[in-house]
Structure formats: structure tokens, C-alpha cells
Amino acid sequence: MMDPVRHAEQATGRRQSSLVDLWSRVGFAAALSEVTGPHVYRYGALPVPTVAVTLYDVRRHVLIEDGRVRRDASVPAGRFRIGQPGREVVVDAVPAVSSGDLLLMYFGDRLLTEVGSAYGLAGPVALADRVWDVEDPFLALSARRLFEASEAARAGHGLLAEQLALTLAFHVADRYGTPDPARLEPPGALRKGTLDRVVAFIRADPAAAITLSDLAGLAGLGPSQFLRAFKRSTGMTPHRFLLRERVAIAEEMLARSSLPLAEIAIACGFSSQSHLGTAFRAATGTTPARYRRYNGD
Known about the structure:
By secondary structure, this protein is of the alpha+beta class. It is built from twelve helices and twelve strands. Strands 1-2-9-4-7-11 form a six-stranded antiparallel β-sheet, sandwiched between helices. The chain starts with a helix and ends with a helix. The relative contact order is 0.11.
């Protein structure tokens, strides 16, 4: 079985500075590697569709695929390319800066099949061939956000990380899939009974480490189908809905108890007092301390 983390380390010849390993859960992994000078990366035969984002300016970037030079040019920071499975890939690059980051994202068959099912396809979404040096700010920013979410996932909060991985997969499929999945009919909303069951599950214990797979299972759908159907039904993502419920519980605890903010944060499912403060202010426009001052018993 392919180990994307090992592949990234073998390709770059170094340990990765940051990792997102959702391979066993949703079929997605990402690795961030620091680049400090001229380098030759031998990717070998790519095991799955792989998106490589160069987050630094490259003075000269030579892409060799199956023994043929496909491109020899400078590459601005933020450009990406899609590598197809089975292709022998070598990259010879000379950075224009002293250091920078290379982001590798691995899209497994399980994830691409899940995305395909959300579009009504019988199999995985295929990604377009010969996609090189494309600028896609959303892709790079979302990947950065995914690394942040992965840190929270290690503390037991995996819903956002799974959701972002699926969002990235949908974005790549929508813009670079073949045939164009965006032209297919989108999934419908959840039935009322199904939505009520999912909402009741979240409200029963909002502090629990709820995953996207947990919620999708309640609805009898795959994670990608559920993600889009839930947003169509509620106007928000499952993670946003969960945050709203946690903030509502925090409001009640702030008004009716004298517990320290740090204890309230943990009781409501936030990873820290700072996490509570950020989410609370985004939802209510004020801080937990100020809310307690004006609403406490």
C-alpha cells in the first residue's frame, strides 16, 4: 500500500517540515518540505494523482517526465502542477530565493471516487493531463489552512481537517477534472428527517470529537455527498454548524456559571481558551469576558 509520507521523503531527500496524514481515513495526504538551494527531486513513478505547489520563486525549473523534458522555464511562487500516476517524474530546480516551501498533495482513489459519487459518477474523478505552471491562490491558501486544521485534529478535532481535504478535492475536480464535473447536476439537500437526526447527534454532545464520517454515516451518504448536501440544507458547512452550537453552549455557561474561561472552553469542545475567544468573537462580535460581564447572573 502506498505511503505518501514516505514517498514525499524519498522524492525530496529530506524529512517534511509539516504533514497532513488523512490517508487511512479519506485517502488524502499532504507534505510541506523546506527548500534551501538548487535541488533535483526524483519522484519516480507517481503512485496517485499528485499536486505540487511551488511556494517560492524558481529561477529555472526543468520538468522531466518519462525521460522527456516537458518544460524548462522560470516559475513564480504559487504556481502548481498535476502529476499523473505511473509517470516517471524528475524536477531539476534552481530557486531565486534562499529558502522556500514545496507543497505536495496526494489524492488517492478513495477520495477521488468519493468526489465522483457526489457528482453521480460511477468511478473516480480523473484529473486533467498536462496541467503545469497554473496559478490558483485558493489552492495554496486552503492547503495552508489544512495544515493548521491538522494540528487541531491531533488534539481530537478532526472534522475541519476532513472537511478541508474534501473541499480541496472538490476544488481540484471542479476546475481540473475530466470530464468537467462542475457541469453535472449537484447533489440535493438532506431530507428533513435525516437533517434532524444529524443535528440531534451534534447537539447531544457538541464537545465530542465528531468526524465528517460520523455525520455522513448518520445520513447514509459518503462524506463528500454529505458535505455538499448539508451545506445546501443549512447554508453552512458541518464544521461551521458545530462551532455555532459550541458557541451557544459557551454563551449559556458564561451567563450561568463562574467557571474560568479555560474550563468553559474545554467543556464546549474548544482546544483552548484562545480558540474559544476566536470562535466566540467571530460568532457574536464580542469577547467571552465582555459577554459574561453584561449577561452573567
